[in-house]
Amino acid sequence: MKLLQVDFAYPNLMGSTLSEGMIELANSINDEAGLIWKIWTEQIKDKRGGGIYLFDSEANAERYLQMHSKRLQTMGASDIRGIIFDVNLPLTRINQGPVPQEG
Amino acid sequence: MKLLQVDFAYPNLMGSTLSEGMIELANSINDEAGLIWKIWTEQIKDKRGGGIYLFDSEANAERYLQMHSKRLQTMGASDIRGIIFDVNLPLTRINQGPVPQEG
Fold first, then answer.
1. Using an 8 Å Cβ cutoff, are B32 and B64 in contact?
2. pLDDT score of A13
3. Which residues in chain B touch residue A23, judged by CB atoms under 8 angstroms apart?
4. Domains of chain B
């Protein structure tokens, strides 16, 4: 299990206003190999968007990050920062972290 | 509800090996005002640690970030990056994001 943390500069954040395009994009993300969940993040003040993802494996997280980085660039994002982390499960369990049991 | 994303350079990551000190720290985090959950993240290869937190309010997230940044420095962390994000709830719901209902 891997956590993918992505954030980027994006001038066109819309807050809770949703375009049909973003709903379609979210639906398509459910079909990505190995995705467990995604939290969509945004900071209107500094015009930064992002996402926190849980994937089943490093390979699937890495493949998604490569594809998504290119997609973000075509959408007008810049300063894209993506890091794939391990999850420390024992400590995360103590703090109610929403990570399923492995295995 | 706010998502706090923190990551930092840390030379002493231990993977799944846990010291009693880290367990105590995790337990204390459960007592922080407004904390809903924390996921503990680490990347051994690049010696980067971090955490993804969900808080009930911006004020509580901001207060924790200030306190935690100082604590991380005393623990030997550097290049500390902390960003408080809004969560786009409609898109997050589409992707099974582990965020409780508000209100």
1. yes
2. 75
3. 90-91, 94
4. 2-87 (3.30.70.100)
